[in-house]
From TrEMBL:
Details of cofactor binding: Probably binds two magnesium or manganese ions per subunit.
Similarity comment: Belongs to the DNA repair enzymes AP/ExoA family.
Cofactor names: Mg(2+); Mn(2+)
Site (Interaction with DNA substrate): H256
Name the UniProt record assigns to this protein: Exodeoxyribonuclease III
Organism, as annotated: Altererythrobacter rubellus
CDD domains: ExoIII-like_AP-endo
Length: 265
């Protein structure tokens, strides 16, 4: 099973690039973030045409997550487990946001997340980010207790370590690198979840995001915020992991690159 995460930064704007990636790389399960589409406007038929089932959790103009499953894999439709992650506490005024979708696919629990950015910090958006991470940890502990093979994929909006960014000074004041979200991410790993990309690239230096501004892509000024976390039942099956970096360099591409992992059957 090949699982992947891809922040597409607008499903309508990136649809040709997204279908291109699906056709060329054929992930079994693809988790998408920032679809930026209301539920009724999600282009499910476009994915049916290239052989994918789809389930989605949309929101007008912002956020939104979706999970695609390759029909050829013979796993059937993804079975929804949970939609949304309601936060009890501080928020940024938007109410419950479309950032979380959890399904069962082929005997594996797949969780697709788009964690809040948190900028500007300090402030209510940063407080909401920390509250959301606490709720995520709580839900991941519940999944852990079920002892089902599980993977949590998505744009975590956390740069875990200094070697996950081209220049620490450039991002020092950004919410993505503050001690609180870094600590929250580290606690997920301490609980026993495995950072798949880190496992195969312990020295870092692998980016998943390059800003559109200041020639960041051309200068390779990127950082790593798209992660795949595996519980022991899936970590033991990890065979390969990588980043489809070349897709970031294509015309009208997302500012993120897809990240994928292969799990042995």
């Amino acid at each position: 099973m090949k699982i992947a995460t891809y922040n597409i930064n607008g499903i309508k704007a990136r649809l040709p690039r997204l279908k291109e990636w699906l056709t060329e790389t054929r992930p079994t399960v693809a988790c998408l973030q920032e679809i930026k589409s209301m539920d009724e406007n999600f282009p499910a038929h476009e994915f049916e045409d290239v052989g994918y089932h789809a389930i989605w959790h949309g929101q007008k103009s912002f956020n939104g997550v979706a999970i695609l499953v390759d029909k050829e894999a013979g796993l059937g439709q993804p079975a929804e487990v949970q939609r949304g992650l309601r936060i009890d506490g501080p928020n940024d005024g938007e109410g419950e946001q479309a950032r979380y979708l959890e399904v069962d696919v082929g005997g594996v629990r797949i969780v697709c997340i788009y964690l809040p950015n948190g900028n500007p910090q300090p402030g209510p958006k940063f407080d909401y980010k920390i509250a959301w991470m606490a709720k995520l940890r709580e839900r991941m502990a519940q999944i852990w207790a079920e002892e089902v093979p599980a993977a949590v994929l998505g744009d975590f909006n956390v740069i875990p370590e200094d070697n996950d960014v081209w220049a620490t000074k450039a991002m020092a004041e950004d919410a993505l690198m503050q001690p609180e979200p870094r600590g929250a991410y580290a606690r997920l790993l301490a609980y026993g979840w495995t950072d798949a990309l880190r496992t195969h690239n312990p020295r870092g230096g692998v980016w998943t995001y390059w800003d559109y501004q200041a020639g960041a892509w051309q200068r390779d000024h990127g950082f790593r915020i798209d992660h795949i976390l595996l519980n022991p039942e899936t970590a033991d099956r990890l065979e390969a992991v990588g980043v489809d970096k070349d897709h970031r360099g294509r015309e009208k591409a997302s500012d993120h690159a897809p990240v994928w992992a292969v799990l042995r059957d």
